[in-house]
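Narrative of accomplishments. A recurring question from our advisory board has been how the design workflow behaves on a single, concrete structure rather than in aggregate. To address it, we present the structure tokens for one chain from the evaluation set, followed by the sequence designed for it. No filtering or post-editing was applied between the two.
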């Protein structure tokens, strides 16, 4: 009888922890919150990004990648970003796919421009730079395909 009660108690604790985890996780996956604006950016390559990737400005997390899809007309990756509304992003800012290092993940880095016009909810960041494949760079370097400009 004591074994049964202990198993029931442990089961209840496991269920409570699971419900708490789901509630916590839903805060980060449910799209833009009331204090965030939604921006869109198009990349030639979004390799290494996934929904939930960080959006950073000056190395500080200011948002999250909430959706990633393919524009079938232009063959570009369309990224939807939820960014803290208190962070004013000029309309000539750049969004680029950056890497944390060789073993780290990718994130979107915002590089602010100098325009006095601030992006509003639903607008697009037009200046973008997609991810650079480290493997392709190494293969180009190994094959000597780095360019012959210096030899001329």
């Amino acid at each position: 009888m004591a074994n049964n009660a202990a198993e029931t108690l442990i089961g209840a604790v496991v269920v409570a922890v699971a419900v708490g985890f789901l509630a916590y996780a839903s805060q980060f996956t449910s799209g833009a919150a009331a204090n965030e604006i939604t921006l869109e950016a198009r990349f030639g390559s979004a390799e290494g990004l996934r929904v939930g990737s960080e959006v950073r400005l000056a190395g500080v997390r200011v948002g999250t990648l909430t959706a990633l899809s393919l524009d079938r007309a232009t063959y570009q990756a369309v990224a939807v970003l939820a960014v803290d509304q208190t962070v004013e992003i000029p309309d000539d800012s750049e969004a680029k796919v950056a890497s944390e290092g060789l073993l780290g993940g990718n994130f979107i880095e915002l590089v602010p421009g100098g325009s006095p016009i601030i992006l509003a909810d639903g607008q697009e960041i037009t200046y973008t730079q997609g991810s650079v494949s480290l493997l392709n760079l190494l293969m180009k370097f190994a094959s000597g395909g780095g360019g012959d400009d210096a030899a001329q």
